[in-house]
Design goal:
With 122 residues, the protein is mostly beta strands. The chain is 0% helix and 54% strand. It is built from no helices and eleven strands. Strand 5 and strand 6 form a beta hairpin. The protein is globular. The termini are far apart.
């Protein structure tokens, strides 16, 4: 079992930055990838990006490339999502997830955090 807890969300204005954290505990050895997802009101959950546990390779959805960065601190068992130049369309509940298969969709992930709200206003 893997337990994930996100933090760092909040309400900011367009152009601001936020850093989300995801603390990982439990049986982490089975996870190959850590992903970030988001879900806006009335919309489906969508993939934001992932980082592979072994190599630290990252991959992002096109709309956040160049603005968002995912990193991992193994000593702290924490994954970060650094978000810069935030836009109103980034408003959503952001969740981290742990998966055994590297994937850019929800199907590859077995464990999920509860999510943290990010609201970006003009």
């Amino acid at each position: 079992q893997v337990h994930l807890v996100e933090s760092g969300g909040g309400s900011v204005q367009t152009g601001a930055s936020l850093r989300l954290s995801c603390v990982i505990s439990g049986r982490t050895s089975s996870s190959a990838v850590m992903g970030w997802f988001r879900q806006a009101p009335g919309a489906d959950r969508e993939f934001v990006g992932y980082i592979t546990v072994r190599s630290g390779s990252t991959y992002y959805r096109d709309s956040v490339k160049g603005r968002f960065t995912i990193s991992m601190d193994n000593a702290k068992n924490t994954v970060y999502l650094e978000m810069n130049s935030l836009k109103s369309e980034d408003t959503a509940v952001y969740s981290c997830a742990a998966g055994s298969v590297v994937a850019a969709n929800t199907r590859g992930y077995e464990y999920w955090g509860q999510g943290t709200q990010v609201t970006v206003s003009p």
